[in-house]
Amino acid sequence: MMKFSYRFNKGTKHSAQVADVAARSSALLRRDSGSETIKSTRKETPQRSGKGDQAAIDRTRSAVRGDGEAAPASQKKADRTGSLKAENAVWRDEKLADVGKLRGGKSPPAKADLVSSVQRPAKTAPASAELAYTIAKTREFVNGTRVTRGRAPAPISEVFAGFEGNDYRDIASPLLDAISAAVAGWVQEAYFDDIVIYGPTATGGPGCLNGPALDPAIRAALPATLTGHKEEMAKGVAEAFSDCFALWQSHVIVPGLPWYPAFAAWPGDEADPMPNIPVSLAALPSQYVTKAVLKFELESAISSALPAPMREERVFIGSLAGSLSRAFATWLNNAMVSQVIGMGPVPAFAPPAVPVHLVMGGWVIPEPPHMSVTAPFRAVWISF
Known about the structure:
With 384 residues, the protein is of the alpha+beta class. 49% of the residues lie in helices and 11% in strands. The chain contains 13 helices and 13 strands. β4 and β5 form a beta hairpin. The longest helix has 30 residues, at 73-102.
């Protein structure tokens, strides 16, 4: 701010000096004697050619200024620069004096003193293991991994040392393995129904994809050693993921995909059963796909399915949700919809006038499996 004020005052004083010189010059020009002098001087001034009469030009400048001999331009510039420097020095001294008055007569501190006075507070260890655990809970997580912003994280064994609470980390891997096995079983039993075939395209509304619920299969795959609050946590996670998966499944649609190219011109009155062109399961949109793909939505569903005391396990729940959401998104692209057998009538077939025509009002045979996977659903636990 001081630097800006300095430049502003410097420009203001310079403008005032220029205005003062211009006013004096105008006053001299209006004087009769000045006007006559200028006229007489102009008569003596020759027409400018290459060099001109420098003496006449100097006399004209001297007559306008009224001080006899004209000063060189370099000398005038040097005088003006020196005057401005002197004025700026006086102004700076006045401002420093004002600052000293505000500080009680003390001079401003040096830059080195200001830098040396800034000391970082010393890092102290948490007062207790419970406090350390609370600090670990509030750290930021991105997709289940800790963000330390350049700080070396404390070993997890030290963070949880002496804390008597619900540590669910040892159930994470068995729980994710159980969910992965349940999804693999669902792939073998899923099938499509209520698909309408018109020519080469197949269309199906919400509810066309059918499959078993995941919750019973997940619970059956859990190890029998889980008891107490750990079993309750595992069942809550299984229920939440099963509900999100079922919500995605119930809203999957087939948006007029070209599954049966041969049905565009079939040479007969009824098309023979034919498998569809394989497509990725990700090509079939669902209104609620975000329930299983987005980490924060899956995390919210898991928290809602747990009892109130267990909802405080935000770190563990966030890590589980991140692992499951990444696994679901990867599996959705790897799963292929194939072996969906379609057939249907060709009502416009009338040889020899109409030897081929498209299938109208066709359907699919609802017999699983209608899916295959290049890579199975695999949720990997990322410890915190």
